[in-house]
Amino acid sequence: MSNLNFPYSLKTSSHGRDFLLEFPTSGFQSKPYLPFSRGLIVRTQTLVYASSLSHGRAHIKGPRVVQFVAKAQPVAEELVEEKLRDPQTSGDSIRQRFLDFYAARGHKVLPSASLVPDDPTVLLTIAGMLQFKPIFLGKVPREVPSAATSQKCIRTNDIENVGRTSRHQTFFEMLGNFSFGDYFKKEAIKWAWELSTSEYGLPADKLWISVYQDDDETFALWHDEIGVPKERIIRLGEDDNFWTSGATGPCGPCSEIYYDFHPGRGTSNVDLGDDTRFIEFYNLVFMQYNKKDDGSLEPLKQKNIDTGLGLERMARILQKVPNNYETDLIFPIIEKAAELANVSYALADDSTKTKLKIIGDHMRAVVYLISDGVNPSNIGRGYVVRRLIRRVVRTGRLLGVKGDGMGDLQGAFLPILAKKVIQLSTNIDADVKTRASRILEELKREELRFVLTLERGEKLLDQMLADALLNAQGTETAPCLSGKDAFVLYDTYGFPVEITNEVAEERGISIDMNSFDIEMEKQRQLSQAAHDTVKLGVENGANLAEDIPDTEFLGYNTLRSKAVVEGLLVNGSPVAQVSKGSEVEILLNRTPFYAESGGQIGDNGFLYMMEAENEQPAIVEIKDVQKSMGNIFVHKGTITEGMIEVGREVEAAVDPNLRQRAKVHHTATHLLQSALKRVIGQETSQAGSLVAFDRLRFDFNFHRPLQDKELVEIEGLINQWIGDAAILETKVMSLTDAKRDGAIAMFGEKYGEQVRVVEVPGVSMELCGGTHVSNTAEIRGFKIISEQGIASGVRRIEAVAGDAFIEYVLTRDNYMKQLCSTLKVKAEEVTGRVGGLLEELRLTRNEVSAARAKAAIYKASTLSSRASTIGTSKNIRLLVESMDDVDADSLKSAAEYLVDLLKDPAAVVLGSCPGDGKVSLVVALTPGVVDLGIKAGDIIKPLAKSCGGGGGGRPNFAQAGGRKPENLLGALEEAREQLKKLLEK
């Protein structure tokens, strides 16, 4: 944060809180800095209390972060910054102090969940409670009674306020403490107050409280138990202080703590929404009711606590800076952006500061999103990333950043800023640094791709906006940019409509969003943006989950076991029994069947219910197994014999052949990831997978197609490891220990505190709950069958192993034998023979093409006599004819022959129907006709349109095609009349 560019010495007082700064008093520029007779005016980010300021000395009271503005020789800044900042108020310290505080009070500290939520109702992780949603709904049992987290969050609904207000951000950290039926209001309020006043040292007289208007209990706790004066407790309505998850579901009143920056304004007519005075930093949600369909509230069986404390907001308060952006969590990024733009943040106007804040905020968002596997695209989460990246690029250009800002005009500046974000990420998400190479490469690629079209798009947008203003003046209406124009900018030039809207607003112009939406619907359907509401609902299945325990999985050790039928579902509804021929979902107390997860599909097999007295035995063919409501396995199948009912014992038997195929492919997937990292780089990471019986599919982050030699090397490594016959090691350990040992986590998977680690010694170590071979030799062989791109920066490999590998090889061998038999050659001679045949075919085609061209020219020569003479001053020869079934290339040759034969000036228009419902068209003009202002393209466009097609070309020659041969003769006649009129002028 410091910019100390002059010699200095810094002395610390005995108690370590005050500092004496000594500096020279000459050699400094007077402008734009104010001179001071005894030294230098010191500009600060926050108020600096100086007990004395004498010649060359500044006595600074307290731990203040100071920005010194001067021009002289550079010196090390880090030492000064470290000494001038109170380590207890750093963002990292605030986060750790929060977690330690609640850990000391029995809370389990859990890691942040991914920004990609394991929840189909939410696009991105927008709150700390999201990872605990199944517990709040009662769908899964709590693993711990209470927890504390620092959760990465993304919200884009207030993006237009970023940089303009002191508190709005797209990326932020939410510190939270959660109780799952362990404690409730009294403890939550007591600890929140203790944390704020004792741990963080906030003055009690600067804290205000809001409560729900009817929540007398909470009001009393704050006033009677904590001692907050009544005049600083404000009752607010449902919109502000009653949290709901949606139309139905868990809900309850909430209470918020506000910090008062200006207590001198008094306590009368207070508005807690006044951002110039207050900031809400801690929200306590008392989740105690379930809202029913009719809107009535019923008490929940388990009362929960869900809180959120904004880390950046608390940092702003404790670091005594005017907004969230100037905290040490964001400001280093802003400083780097200011350096690239060659501006001073301290001396900048409000508009420049706003732009720098936007860059600082958005860069954090895109780095953490890409780290969590979200790559730029035009749909869903990828669209959020692309929109933010393009906003940063445009904002940087508005600030004057050229190229990479370091002299390379062809370079990218986002990676430079991203390095600063990554540097700050250590205590937020340690995985970001390990993914740094991929993040920087993705940002560079996306920025350069956008810059290619940005300038053209900006010029076009300027013209569109100028036209909109001109039209508005002519019609005396409000200026408005058409939705169609906005869509062209989006679809062709990569401008997110939000950027177009920002630029338009700067000119006082609105956008017709209704017509834009219509255009978008025609082209593609964008995923809906994330909302600020987490959709929760107490579903019918929740009651079933209360009665049925988690399924005990036995499948690591056995493929057959006895089990009891705990529940039956037909079309989603519980039933007591099901008869032959019915599709059914079966819940067992224990099972050897693997349920689909971690990319591996569910097992197939059978359930057998033994024959009882006077009963037919029941058989259920299982075709799929899924997890539901936490860890309950749902066996989906068809009853082929007898009747099955709840409470009866069955024998569950997994198909051993299919299980082996899945095991082989799953272990091969682990080997594939290790091979990819060794061949193309450690920065590549998994972006998805499928482990099936017949193949495996592995998606990974990489910026280019793999070369053939790389694929060969990858296959070679994997088959070598298979041949090594390595024995796999499987163990259960803590998530912390597993990550410390280097285990790789699978993208998109959610892990508990205890994890299963599968290791191929010396090759691979991954967190994985799937089934695997015991020895790599069981895989037998591995073959890549395809490699392709599936999204920007994401590649996909499909491969086969084990039995599927043998089947693949045998099938290909059979194809080769058939090919050898057909070509009458040995296998090793096939390539040469096919090459020879292709060369023969090429020569034959050339001969045929030449023969057709000669035939067309001969036919054209017979048509030349039909040319008519047009014009009074010039004898212009005009020929418009159909040449039946002549192909396009021959038609071109005929036209070129005819314009040479007819001499200048001449115009030739030819058409043909070469078959398959196609039309070919050619217009050829000599220089003398072109000089008259007639262009071949202008002639051929309406001609092609009449024939159901299009085309173009040079002024003297144009070609086109069509799909309506029945219109050819009429179209040629229209072209004849058009040319006559033009040539007779």
Automatic annotation (TrEMBL):
Entry-linked InterPro entries: aa-tRNA-synth_II/BPL/LPL, Ala-tRNA-lgiase_IIc, Ala-tRNA-ligase_IIc_anticod-bd, Ala-tRNA-synth_IIc_core, Ala-tRNA-synth_IIc_N, Ala-tRNA_ligase, Ala_tRNA_ligase_euk/bac, Ala_tRNA_synth_plant
Reaction(s) the record says it catalyses: tRNA(Ala) + L-alanine + ATP = L-alanyl-tRNA(Ala) + AMP + diphosphate
Subcellular location: Plastid, Chloroplast; Mitochondrion
Listed cofactors: Zn(2+)
GO molecular function, one term: alanine-tRNA ligase activity
Residues covered by the Alanyl-transfer RNA synthetases family profile domain: 89-811
Cellular component GO terms held in the UniProt record: chloroplast; cytosol; mitochondrion
EC assignment: 6.1.1.7
Co-factor remark: Binds 1 zinc ion per subunit.
Stored SUPFAM superfamilies: Class II aaRS and biotin synthetases (SSF55681), Putative anticodon-binding domain of alanyl-tRNA synthetase (AlaRS) (SSF101353), ThrRS/AlaRS common domain (SSF55186), Translation proteins (SSF50447)
Main location: plastid
Keywords: Aminoacyl-tRNA synthetase, ATP-binding, Chloroplast, Ligase, Metal-binding, Mitochondrion, Nucleotide-binding, Plastid, Protein biosynthesis, RNA-binding, Transit peptide, tRNA-binding, Zinc
UniProt GO BP: alanyl-tRNA aminoacylation
Domain of life of the native organism: Eukaryota
Gene3D superfamilies: 2.40.30.130, 3.10.310.40, 3.30.54.20, 6.10.250.550, Bira Bifunctional Protein, Domain 2, Threonyl-trna Synthetase, Chain A, domain 2
Binding site for Zn(2+): 666, 670, 768, 772
Subunit structure: Monomer.
Note on domains (UniProt): Consists of three domains; the N-terminal catalytic domain, the editing domain and the C-terminal C-Ala domain. The editing domain removes incorrectly charged amino acids, while the C-Ala domain, along with tRNA(Ala), serves as a bridge to cooperatively bring together the editing and aminoacylation centers thus stimulating deacylation of misacylated tRNAs.
HAMAP family: Ala_tRNA_synth_B, Ala_tRNA_synth_plantC
Function: Catalyzes the attachment of alanine to tRNA(Ala) in a two-step reaction: alanine is first activated by ATP to form Ala-AMP and then transferred to the acceptor end of tRNA(Ala). Also edits incorrectly charged tRNA(Ala) via its editing domain.
Family: Belongs to the class-II aminoacyl-tRNA synthetase family. Alax-L subfamily.
The protein, known as: Probable alanine--tRNA ligase, chloroplastic
Organism the protein comes from: Nicotiana sylvestris (Wood tobacco)
